[in-house]
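To: structure desk
From: M.T.
Subject: fold request, one chain
Message: Could you run this one when you get a chance? Sequence is below, nothing fancy, just the single chain.
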Amino acid sequence: MMVDCPSTLQELLIEYIAENIDSVCTVRYSDNDSCKLYFRDSNAFCHQKAANLLLRTLDRKKLLTDLYLTLFDPLVLRLSQVTLHNTENVSRLGLEVFQHHQIQSVETKNLGKGKVSVDELINCFSEWTLNNLRTLNVSGSSKSSNVSYNPGNILSPKLYLSLSKLRNLNVLNVSGTELASHALLNICSDLTTLTSLDISNCCKLESVECLRLRKDTLKSLNLYNLKVLRMEETKQVLLDLQELVHLDLSENKAVQDPIDRLVPSRPIVAELLQHSEFGPNLQSLDISGQDEAKLDDLYFFLRVHPNCHFLGLMLTSLCLDTVFLDSYNIKVTGVARADQLVEALRRYPARKEYVPKILYKIFMLTAHSDTPRPDIIKILVPFFGIFRPKKKLIEFAHVRCLALRRRNMGERI
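Reply: Done. C-alpha cells follow.
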C-alpha cells in the first residue's frame, strides 16, 4: 500500500531488530552469573543515530529491561541520547550501562514511579556526561522510586539535589514534578548556563523570585498552570527577565482550589501586556486560559513586539477576533479556525484539559466539510497511544474526529 510518508530503511531495520531481539541477539553468562546480550553477528555495529533510535524504539514498545540494556555496549551501540518513558522493568543495575556512554541529551517520563528515580539515573552518568549534558527532561518524575517511597512521609528536602552536578546544562524540564521553591533556588544558583526552563504544573512552587538569578541567560520559560501566575511578585520577576524569547503563562480554566482562594491574588497577564518594557525580545507568548486579557492589551503587546511569531490563545475569546486573525502573520492556538486547532494539537498533546475541547472543535468544523484534511488525521492518530481508555471524553471525541475521513484519506496514511 502506498503511503504519503513511508518509513526510512533505517527505521524499518530498527523496528525489525526491536521486535526480534531473541533472533538477532544471544545471551552470554559470565563467571559471576551475570548475563549480557550480544548481537549474533560479532561484526555488528550501529552508528550513533541508529543506536539512539534503537533505544527509543525499545522504550516505545515497552520492551526495555535490564538485560536488553546490556546490548548497548559503546563498542557496538554508542549512545548520545537517552529516552526512557517506560521503565517499569528497569532497575538501577540496568541504568549502569550509561556509565560507559557520552550522553548529551536525556528525556524521561514519570521516572520514580517504577524501580528507578532521577537521582539514581544521574548517579549512573559518566564524568563526561555530567560535564557535557546539555538537555535534561524529567517531566512527571520524582526523586524517590516506588521501591523506597513511603506515602506517609514528605519527600526529602534534597529533592533534585543531584541536578547541581550538571554544571553545563542548557535545557531543563522538571514540569509536573514535586519541585519546591528551595529546589528551584538550588537549580537557579548552580546551573549557571541554563537557557531554557520548564516548571509547568509544579504545584508545590510558592515563589519564582529566584529566577532573577538567571535573568541574563534564560531565553525560554514555561510556567503553565502555576498558582504563582496570580501573584504580584511574579509580575515583577517577569519584568526583570529581559532576555526571554519564549514565555508560557497559560493556565487551565478549572475551578480554583478552595485553599488557594484564601491567598490574596490577582491576574497579572493583562498588566504585563500593557507594560512597554515587558519581554522586549519575546517572539513567542502563550496566554491560553488567561481570559482577563483584553483585545486592546494584546494589540499593544503586538505593536511593541513586531517580531512575535506565535501567540497561544487557547481557551480565550481573543482568538475569535477576525481583524486580529487577518492583520498579523503569526501562528495562533485557538478554536476559531482549523489551522489554530491543528497548531494547538501540536503544542498541547499532553494537556488533558485542552485536548477534549480541541477534538470537539475539530469535529464541529469538519463535520460538513468535503475537503480532505490528511494533515489533521496524521496528528490525531498518535493520540490513541497518549491517553488511557478511561479518558472516555477524549477517546469519544478522538474516534468521532477519525470518523470524518473523506475520499479514502485513511488509505493514504
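Reply (cont.): The first strand starts at residue 25 and ends at 29. Let me know if you need anything else for the meeting.
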